[in-house]
Every structure is written in C-alpha cells, then in structure tokens.
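Usage example:
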Amino acid sequence: MRRIAIAAAATVSVVVLLFSYRTSTDQTPVAATGRPAGGAQPSRTTSPPPAANPSATTGTTGDGTFTGDAADTRYGPVQVRITVAGGRITAADAIDYPQESGRDVRINTEAVPELNQETLQAQSAQIDTVSGATYTSEGYQQSLQSAIDQAHR
Amino acid sequence: MTTASRRSWTRAVMGTQASLHLRGRRIDSDPAVEPAVAAVFGGLRCADELFSTYRPDSQVSALRRGRLPRARRHPWLVEVLALCEEARDRTEGYFDAWLPGGFDPSGLVKGWAAEKAAEHLAGLCGFDHYLNVGGDITARVGVTTAPPWRVAVEDPTDKTAFLAILELRTGGVATSGTAARGHHIVDPHTGAHPGDLLAVTVTGPTLLWADVFATAAFARGGDDVETWVATRAPGYEVATLARAP
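Running the assembly step on the lines above writes:
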C-alpha cells in the first residue's frame, strides 16, 4: 500500500495539447498552420486530470472487461486487462508480466503497482489509442492498445 | 447527441501490430466498410513485402545486395528512395536511411505506409478513423461534430505511465525513443547512440514527416531540439519530450 501511496503522490502530470490541423490537403511539412513555433516554452496547456474535462464520451459499445493480447518482451510476456465503463477505462491491470529472473522480479515489483496506479490516473480521461516508441514499450503499449482494440471489436 | 458506433481491426504486420479504428453511425450497415478495411491491411502487407530488411525476397533486400536494376524498381520504392533523400536534406542528415550496414528505410516506411494504406478509407463517407502501427498514429476526424481521438503518450522512464494525452483530429503522432532492446537509432554524423533524450513525440499534418522528425530529433537531441523541429518542419511540433536524468 505504501508504494501505491507514493506512486499516487508522484502524480503523472497529464498534459493536454489541443490541436486541430486543417484537413490535410497539404502533403508536405511546409504546410503552415499559423501555430506558434515552439521556442523555449512550446505551446501547450497543462490541465488538471481530465476528470473535469467535459468532452463528451461517444459510443459506449466498448463497455466491459477486455484482455489485451500478450505482448512478447525480452523478459517475457506482458498482458494488460482493462475495464471500460461509459467509454472510459476504469481499471487497468497487468495480469501477466515477467517474473522469472532477479531482474524481472525487480521490474515486476517496481513497475507493476505503479503501472496499475498511474494508468488509473491517466485513464480519468477517455483514451482512444497509445503512442510509444516501438522499442521502449516492452510490450505494455502493445498490450494496452490490444485491450482497447478488443473493447471495440 | 447521436452515438457513433466504433469498431476495431488488428493485424500483425511490419514486425509489429497495426490497429485500425473506425467510428461512424453506419459502421455496421455500410457495405463499403469491410472492403476498405481489407484494402488498408493489404496496403500495409504490400509495403512490408517490398521494404522489409528481414525478407530476403524484398526489393530493399535486393537493393542492399546491389541486385536491383533501376528498371525493376517498384514505383513505391522509387518514391521511398526520393523521400529518404528529401528527409536527409530536411533533417540536416539526422535522418539517414543510408546506414553503414546498407540502405534501410524502415524509419520512414512505417509512417509512409500507414498513411498510404489509410488513403483507402478516403472513399468512406461519415466515418472517422485512426490507424496505429507500432505506436505511430495517423488519424482523420471527418465528422465535424465528432470529438478528437485521444492519444496517450507512453512515459519511457517507467514504461507504465503516460507523459501526456494528445487530442488529434487530422494528422499524425509519432514517437521515437531509446531502445530498451538495444539502440536502434544512431546519430549519422557521429555513428554514436544519442544520449540525452529518452523519447520524443512529434505531431503534425502528416505521419510521414512527424515520424521522420521524431527519429531525427531523437538522434540530434540538444536543448534546442523543439525549436529545431519547428524551424526545420513548419507545422510540426515536439508534443512531448523525455530527457535522460
């Protein structure tokens, strides 16, 4: 419990970047969008965890519990299960994760409680998909995406 | 508000998973949906067969062996070769498909192929889509009243949390990161593995160039990397950045 409390204290800051590109008739990156061009402080808005976000949830076809495909990683399979209610993820659990070697145990004990906790924080918004570097994810991105896929199958 | 139905399709392709989501009221009744979806995955498969460096029978493998006369080059390969040159120029060489080990356009092909495949959805009316190929996303929200897609960006520091949630209507989101499975990006100027960034996510009008600039920004690094992307690629932006501690 203590670890979870610590994880909760170290709240993941959720940055919401609103952007709306014109329908892309531009196929090259020279398309000017008139957005401020970054600089030391790029344009982005930090908002409270988007539980306060009034954005409507469309489609509740995805309600239920969904288990992502196990994603193979260097350390073994990672498998994520989510519970969706009203289009929002209300629980996310790693139901399978590597636990063979000492290194795996370390990953397991360090990462999994935070994984469950922090995903819960991030999910107070509706999430449609997950972006991550293919090689950093160690399977979590893949399995979470897979669970989201199954919620809409 | 009318409920928009949503469906997903997934396939293993290009050494990773591709997920296609469609949203629209006529998702279960429009007969054009399934053929369009099949065409999307067919396009991804074709690209894989042409460009895979793992398939000995691919055009890229033949090119790497020096056994592909110009006349036999597929039009897609001709297009990708030109894009790789353009990408090298635009990124000041930080994206470079001509590696010491041979020509490898993988860093560009995934985004390019996803976008090209998603063009098969252009004929559908009244649908929004996103296509996520191994964590890189091309999306379109064609229904003006529909909400944006919400894209969670994985946090590379513990692989378990999100750095951000981005709202995406039309365009691309690409993330490049350090290689937990071994460094797979090198700085082409030095041959060294970049050190100061853990992951960088670039957004913009196309996934092709978001992907190229995510790769290049990761290889380049530096305190001014956000400005560098905005300057080299107007309309594109570093949306999230994770620096090594």
